[in-house]
Amino acid sequence: MFRDTCRRFAEREIGPIWEKADRESEFPRPFFTAAAKAGLIGIAAPADVGGADLGVYEEAICIEECARVNPGLPNALIIQGVAGGILHDFGTPEQQDLARASINGEKILAIAVTEPDAGNDVQNVKSTARRDGDDWVLDGIKSFITLAGEADVLVLLAQTDRERGREGMSFFAVDRNSPGVEVSRIPTYANRPAPTYRVHLNGVRVPEARRVPAGFRQIMAGFNRERILVSARWLGHMQHAQDWALDYAKTRHQFGRPIGANQSIAFMLAQNQTDIEAARLLAYEAADRWDSGCPIGDLIQQVSCAKLFVTQAVVRVTQSALHIGGGWGLTEELPVMRMALDALVAPVTVGSFEIQLRAIAKQLGLPCD
Ligand SMILES: Cc1cc2nc3c(=O)[nH]c(=O)nc-3n(C[C@H](O)[C@H](O)[C@H](O)COP(=O)(O)OP(=O)(O)OC[C@H]3O[C@@H](n4cnc5c(N)ncnc54)[C@H](O)[C@@H]3O)c2cc1C
Description:
Helices cover about 50% and strands about 15% of the residues. By secondary structure, the protein is of the alpha+beta class. It folds into three domains: about 1-110, Acyl-CoA dehydrogenase/oxidase, N-terminal domain (Butyryl-Coa Dehydrogenase, subunit A, domain 1); about 110-215, Butyryl-CoA Dehydrogenase, subunit A, domain 2, CATH 2.40.110.10; about 220-365, Up-down Bundle (Butyryl-CoA Dehydrogenase, subunit A, domain 3). A hairpin with a 2-residue loop joins strand 2 and strand 3. The longest helix is centred in the middle third of the chain and has 29 residues, at about 225-250. The structure holds flavin-adenine dinucleotide.
């Protein structure tokens, strides 16, 4: 029932608009408003901030169904969940109001962690926040910040006390139109409907009331939730590519028969299906565990296995689909090259596959660094 609702939403609200958004690399704000109206932002957020108070399992269903149409736009929903989650789980009442505004469709949030020298190595964040009276003054550069150009609020990580390492880091809810915030587009080959930006912070004044009162470790543990949703996103994309490739294999004829009648093509599709089934089990098992409330330490392995497997499998599945598309697959007349390009972002973002392998190895008791 919930899945059907999400599927209908995706077909109605993403189907007609994603190609233009992708071609022009412009985020369509009406999509955000429609998602909020349909109750699809803040699915797992508590009711007192306007959320649906469901689980990450349901959130994953929504993301998967949206990504079956296009993987770029549901990324905007994942980001609202991650940035909003920091604000409603750890924030003050004023900060929780910002999460509520995102859930209502009034404000877009962006999450700003990555920097030019802090990609996977998040602890190397160099942006600084210096206390000045009741304010903090922020300086630095953030990179790859999805929707920074469209966002109303950046939920941004900065060093408040370099001496204390990661204990000296805080998240701030920064109004994007604050004096000293400058954004510029980073053109990418993937993720184009939800564009990504470089953000310069030049003496940006942020009141102490906008500093999230929780520690770095506590907040970063919540990023495991993002990995579950990212797994659901790429699962939906795999299914989309497989649906397309199956249809093409059955309808494209060469040598007087469908190309899918050749065992080599049929086996590729059978292998893809196995990847999809395995990905689904891993992603939803991780979501189930998250919702069961088990301690983070007891679900890291499951989450990293899901993120690792799904983000590698989506590359395999889309590459097979591209091969099945033959020469036409490489043209703009078919959608499969776009699918393959989009998939390439999966294993390198939100903790690359090496980072997931490292997390799993550590869970196995190996002194791996
Ligand atoms: C389209 C897009 C959207 C994004 N959106 C956001 C966003 O909204 N907010 C945000 O904060 N960030 C965002 N990111 C950043 C993203 O999550 C990654 O942090 C970032 O892409 C990492 O890229 P990098 O070039 O800095 O990688 P690097 O960390 O420089 O890694 C380069 C290579 O080295 C490998 N590597 C690094 N460390 C190790 C190690 N210890 N062991 C083995 N191998 C290692 C990596 O796996 C990778 O293959 C986005 C990125 C992209 C591409």
